[in-house]
Amino acid sequence: MKRESGQAKSLTLLTLSMIIFGTIGICRRYIPLPSDALAFSRGILGGVFLLLVLKTRGQRFRREQIGRKNFLLLVVTGALIGLNWILLFEAYNYTTVAVATLCYYMQPVIVMLLSPIVLKERMTGKQMFCVIVAVIGMVLVSGVIGGGAPGNLKGVALGLGAAVLYASVVLLNKLIIGVPAFEKTIIQLFSAAVMMVPYMAAAGNLHAYELPAIGAVLFLTVGIVHTGIAYALYFGSIERLPARTCALMSYIDPVTAVVLSAVLLHEPMGTAGMIGTIMIIGSAIYSEM
User: Fold this and answer.
1) Is residue 130 part of a domain?
2) Structural domain count of the chain
3) Is residue 271 one of the residues assigned to a domain?
4) What is the pLDDT of residues 36-79, one digit of tens each?
């Protein structure tokens, strides 16, 4: 009974973290900051928050469990995460939150396509079927068939670029062995922030910004809630849940984004887009079952 109660609580926390992740596109719309500056702040605020979580738990940062090879991989994956954030935040600027998020959730399909090359894993017939269905769904969502606007297509391209970068992070993370989840994420978040510094300097965005009240609140929300709290909830819940359950529950994120995009932002999605949404999310869930 106690074990079932613990799993139910973990499932609730995981669901909450996925809903939080699904609202980041809505917040991005009302933060008047360049994407690189927002990504830098997200890395710093999220990393500091997770360090505080460790301290409040009475735990220390276990650097002895990292190792040189793992540390280098964490720095590289952190840099890729930072670039991935930039592309995703830019995608929100050019297309709807729903389309950008669905493009981003092509990541599992990209992992399936790259796994035979990078990890020497054999692709099954079921996986190939899921890839084909997801790609067709992506074409329907993107609006290419209906002659989508250039801005929308640019948003689609940016979202897919973010998905490729995140798929790279997923594959490289498989090579990182023995590093606790909190320590891994803290290094990656700070590495993402450090990666942004030369990028911001080159773009001329390395300076202070003034934000309106609502923009400042949402800015802190993205850094603390969407990064620090959401990651803390996520890692605090997955320890007691099967890996497949966690993978399936992750699709609450895009569903939340699609629903809120329609309800709060009144962003249109035609019949083809809705069919494509079902195909993308459905094929991803089926591949995990």
Assistant:
1) no
2) 1
3) no
4) 999 999 999 999 999 998 889 888 888 887 888 999 999 999 99
The closest alpha carbon to 98, from 269, 280, 275, 278, belongs to: 269
pTM: 0.85
**Which whole number is the average pLDDT over 83-106?**
91
Q: What is the pLDDT of residues 192-246, one digit of tens each?
A: 999 999 989 998 888 888 899 999 999 999 999 999 899 888 877 877 777 667 7
Record the tokens describing residue 134, joined without a space: 């997801």
pLDDT at 82 over 70: yes
> Can you tell me the distance from the alpha carbon of 260 to that of 111, in angstroms, rounded to the nearest whole number?
27
- Examine residue 221 and state whether it is found in any structural domain, yes or no: yes
Q: How far is CA 88 from the centre of its chain?
A: 9
Ordered DSSP codes for 73-133: HHHHHHHHHHHHHHHHHHHHHHS-HHHHHHHHTTHHHHHHHHHHHHT-PPPPHHHHHHHHH
In a 3-state reduction of DSSP, which class is residue 208? coil
The gap from C-alpha 77 to its chain's centroid, in whole angstroms, comes to 13
Cα dihedral 74, 76, 82, 87, rounded to 10, equals: -130
Residue 122 in contact with residue 116, Cβ under 8 Å? yes
Range of 230's domain?
22-121+149-243
pLDDT score for 1: 54
Q: Which amino acid is at 182?
A: F
What 3-state class would DSSP assign to 264? coil
pLDDT at 142 over 80: no
Considering only CA atoms, which of 103, 145, 140 is closest in space to residue 272? 140
